[in-house]
Records
---
Amino acid sequence: MTSLPPALLDALKKALGPGGLLTDASDMASYLTDWRSLFHGKAFAVARPGSTEACAEAVRLCAEHKVPVVPQGGNTSMVGGATPDETGHALVIVTSRMNKVREIDPIDNTMVVEAGVTLKAAQDAATRAGLMLPLSISSEGSAEIGGVLATNAGGNNTVRYGNARELVLGLEAVLPNGQVLNLMRRLRKDNTGYALRQLFVGSEGTLGLITTAILQLQPKPKSIEAALCAVEDAKGALALFSAFRNVEPSAIQAFEFMSGLSMNLVNTLIPDASLPLSEPAPAYVLVELASPRGGNSLRELMEEVLGKAFEDGLLSDAVLAESEAQRLAFWKLREEHAEAQKRAGASVKNDVSVPLSAIPSFIERATAACEKLIPGIRVVPFGHIGDGNIHFNLVQPDGMDGQAFLARDHEMMDTVANIVRELGGSFSAEHGVGQLKSYMMPGWRGGAELDMMRRIKGAVDPEGIMNPGKIFPAV
Ligand code: MLT
Ligand code: ZN
């Protein structure tokens, strides 16, 4: 690794102010590795700007010296999207110090929020204002708004409110040349040419660095009902989903699937997580209904649909949350899935989507194919089944060396992806492409689609300095 040209280093220090530039190896270490410890990168330095202006000046200086920039939020990417490569020729720009919720407007139902606010802090601020930010992901305590938007995060409430993309009204971003692009309009209707803000959502930091956003909020629910249900399999889960959807589709706020094996990992490896059902089941559903109206009608709806589903043999057991604490305990069982799998050993994540009707066949075929590929492999599917998004995760067999397992990740990913392709799905439903899955892009998005993405990238970032090595495979 070479060091920064002294003139650039001095200019960056000046632009970023005290504590704004980290160059010490131990200070930088946590920013150079991803949450899953799959990637270990290097960088000249780590910048922590406290404002859009400081951030823009840091990017401008990098552009002038042709130093690549790696934007980073809470560093929770599942695909190495915020980790620099191993050359050391990069500046990581971390948004965590830009962490103000600037404004919440109860008439517009909007929130103006800086990139470094964690998703949880943004949700809490909306709740305090009597509103709701309807985006929820397992890593929300660390994930920051800038990264959540750059990756178009999905999560538990997509089934009702859409992905991050659907919540963005306005955006401010620093372009690869250091210019600030101000798209901070809080308009429901604005039909004036290309919707440039949407170009940044899901671009994984390859077109610019998001610094501020205006998000659409929703009324805070006055009643919420959650139930944990024991079902036979994914087919049973989908039948239950249809049962709710046929009666009151707008009430479904979350509909999550968990296989028996994945739930068992949570139950055994996560302290304070305990299954409230009398017996373990082959699979589970966590369903949550919400309404901005109070009263008992939601509870009645939940009981009516579950009662009928029980009579129809769609579920064998169900527990309704009797308190907020119990509802949160149900969610703990779901949200600790990633952590439990991490504790169980090395894992390969296949974050796929297929049409709802194809999910049972997908799980059956992919399970058989993976078990054939690596005998003893632990197949632990779970996820946002109401969106057709299954985390078809694979945990190393007990006793196998974790590195030897990970060395075969492409074999496993390709085996699963081939089945996904036959069923008309996508190889990445919500985690993005990052550096882990960029090798799949030509096979999946090749031809005119990848070509157009490359031309957009080339037009916005002709020097290729923004988040190199992400989305696009090396040519
Ligand atoms: C989740 O929904 O919990 C994460 O996206 C999943 C994962 O670990 O694959
Ligand atoms: Zn997920």
---
Amino acid sequence: MSIQNRFQPLLKQREQEHLYRRRPLVFSPQQPIMQINGIECINFSSNDYLGLANHPNIKQALLNSLNTEDDISYGSGAAHLVTGHHLHHHLLEDELADWLGVERTLLFSTGYMANLAVQQTLMQAGDTILADKLNHASLIDGAQLSAATVKRYPHLDMEALERRLKQAQAQNSQVMIVTDGVFSMDGDIAPLKTLQQLAQNYQAWLFVDDAHGIGTLGKQGKGCFEHFGLEPDENTIIVGTLGKAFGTSGAFVAGSETLIETLIQFARPYIYTTAMPQLNALAIREALKLVKNAEASREALQQNIKHFREGALKIGLNLWPSETAIQPIMLGKSETAVAWSEALKQAGFWVGAIRPPTVPKNQARLRVTLSASHTVEQIDQLLQALHNIQTRIGG
Ligand code: PMP
């Protein structure tokens, strides 16, 4: 069968189900006012939570390094274990570990790869992965790549999790509890205190993907552990991504010396891939300085979240109980979400419609993401546009 014959019907079906996705073409730097598909609009879809993606300090650090005796190549040239592990990668890992108060960190080119690596490497046949049902796709894929038995528990349901922990204990199976820190499509925060307690009670390992928490949550931006006033213990594994609040790209795993050495020795998504460009590591080092000193931006982000929620609830929008920068407006049907997103585009706002399979059936939504770089006026304009669309199209 030709590729055409196999896949054309599937593409057609996607279109008919209002699930077909197109990549918006961006013509401007990442910032609140952007040119997307030739339209000038205010962007409420990015993960640039602290407004660092286009920060002058990061650009300047890159320019300086290119113009001085540093003599940095763009490409890293090889995998970390070959000859691709350059000085800025090495320094960045130490700086991230110092900042987070963990023994070590390990860089990956993407969060997706870090999430594949942790579960595939650590979880073996006979082990059990207990995963929140709404975990990010990369965590789901990572679980599937491992040889462990995978069981999912209903979203945030700690009693259901404990029942599964008891079952695994009865079978003498090593458990890893796997959860998003901040759920990427819902914006709610995992109940880390209970999760940590359960992990300790049942000698389970706790793996938290804090992609959306790192940089934004906690006074110092150290993520969801700091948010709850908790310290990671020796059986905690944290993934942080660098393409969101850090405004760059890449990710790191944070944890114990043994954890990191195990990943270096055995993690296929670490070993068999070229190291990220050294210049990116240099940009992340600059971003880390900014994140450490971003207390005012984190406060501004919290104010923006509060302002948006108050305004949205006042006009009767169906919000999710989220206190983070991710604020879904629940609409149900995919075609409704698409219609609202299109109407917002016409009004000059970019807000993505999130549909199955990214979210469960009949839970299509608009996913508004807020940044410290949005102004109150921009948020008010969005609320006004949402109010107009609600009156015109309905939910
Ligand atoms: N985890 C979560 C919760 C995410 O939202 C994302 C990105 N959307 C990732 C992991 C993947 O990170 P990256 O984009 O660096 O691959």
